[in-house]
Design goal:
Blueprint lengths: L1 E4 L25 E4 L24 H12 L3 E2 H4 L5 H6 L4 E4 L3 E2 L9 E2 L9 H12 L3 E6 L10 H14 L4 E5 L7 H9 L4 E3 L6 H7 L5 H14 L4 E8 L5 H13 L4 E6 L16 H14 L4 E4 L9 H7 L24 H11 L15
Parallel strand pairs: 4-7, 5-6, 7-8, 8-9, 9-10, 10-11, 11-12
Antiparallel strand pairs: 1-2, 3-4
Helix pairs in contact: 4-5, 5-6, 6-8
Length: about 375
């Protein structure tokens, strides 16, 4: 293996195009281990035909954009350059992004600006609920930036947003895509107690790549946060996502899917990595629709996920309303305690956690037999 750094990575701060996010910081350099002779796909290369989407601009899209600006709200649809923004906004659905639009972490694949947030908007839950009511939502999706400078990571704002939506719109289901709260169990409990219909937290990539592209995050912390949710509320639907195309192997994808099932995760989404800018991790490959279809079949028929949404344009909240109403949650899995917590600024692994991690590692899993992956 050799290391490849994107040659054009700049040092200036990054912010999504067309937005003023205030003072932001650089995402830093991006260095990933790559097989000898393997080269990343150049930024701005022509996309394959299955990734072509119509540019947004319909009447409902423009209405929702004006609504978000008038309420001083943010959406991850805009901040993360979601390719489905035209489709979703025209159908009247959007994913609210609370706690501001500047993230304290600098994930190397994420289009959200990185820096130090300057304020905490405690009126935001009311405005999100009001906007969801104006939109006539039947299913509201809430996510956020990381706010590691806050003691609870913003959990109280999440909980209040869930409660306000439920009170304002009876019958509206709520899905939250939360940070890891650095492993703070009390913060996680506050969100679980607010009773969202779906609680999601994304691992985003496989274990080997996680430390390169998710600074501040931890692979097993993310998986175990989802497992702990099942201990706190065995009837809670849980969800996670993996982005494909950053250099992972098929064996690593399969292993990560197995790891998520150890935490009894119910719903998995798999989508194509689309490099937001030259600041971000290089694109390794275009994943075909046929490969995505095979992972869906493996996840549902072999590994036991309640639902796998898998496709090039799939993102975390894609078709989320249907998932909240049709899937029955599994009970707790093998992993129910939070691992790799970072409450004091340093990750500490005790003997109990070390033993659990060793038992989960075990021998490498057999290659999946449901479908042939050798030709991928």
């Amino acid at each position: 293996m050799s290391s490849t750094q994107a040659p054009e990575v700049p040092t200036r701060g990054y912010a999504p195009q067309g937005k003023d996010n205030g003072i932001v910081k650089s995402k830093g350099t991006v260095t990933l281990p790559r097989p000898e002779g393997s080269e990343p796909i150049a930024h701005m290369s022509r996309k394959p035909p299955w990734l072509k989407v119509r540019a947004p601009g319909g009447p409902n899209y423009l209405r929702l954009k004006q609504l978000m600006r008038s309420q001083g709200l943010h959406t991850v649809c805009e901040e993360a350059h979601c390719p489905n923004i035209g489709e979703c906004w025209e159908s009247g659905t959007a994913t609210f992004m609370i706690l501001g639009d500047v993230c304290t972490r600098a994930c190397k694949y994420c289009a959200v600006a990185h820096g130090m947030p300057t304020e905490l908007d405690r009126d935001e839950p009311r405005r999100v609920a009001d906007s969801a009511a104006v939109m006539g939502l039947e299913h509201a999706v809430i996510t956020s930036v990381n706010r590691d400078e806050l003691k609870d990571g913003g959990a109280a704002i999440y909980a209040e947003t869930i409660r306000q939506i439920h009170e304002r719109i009876p019958g509206c289901t709520v899905e939250v895509l939360v940070p890891d709260f650095k492993g703070n169990e009390a913060a996680l409990q506050a969100v679980v107690d607010a009773r969202p219909e779906i609680l999601a937290h994304n691992i985003d990539t496989v274990e080997r790549l996680s430390r390169y592209v998710r600074p501040g995050g931890r692979y097993w912390r993310s998986i175990s946060v989802l497992g702990a949710v099942k201990r706190m509320n065995p009837g809670q639907l849980t969800k996670s996502a993996i982005i494909l195309g950053m250099g992972e192997t098929e064996e690593e994808i399969y292993q990560s899917m197995r790891d998520l099932r150890e935490a009894s995760v119910d719903i998995l989404t798999l989508g194509q990595y689309l490099r937001p800018s030259e600041h971000h991790v290089p694109l390794d490959r275009w994943v075909t629709p046929e490969e995505f279809a095979r992972w869906k079949e493996i996840g549902e028929r072999e590994l036991g996920f309640g639902h796998v949404e898998s496709g090039p344009l799939v993102r975390s909240s894609y078709h989320a309303r249907e998932q909240a109403r049709t899937i029955d949650p599994d009970g707790p899995g093998r992993i129910t305690e939070i691992l790799e917590a970072d409450l004091d600024g340093a990750v500490v692994i005790d003997a109990r956690e070390a033993a659990l991690r060793a038992s989960l590692a075990g021998a490498p899993p057999a290659r999946p037999t449901l479908v042939q992956l050798g030709s991928l």
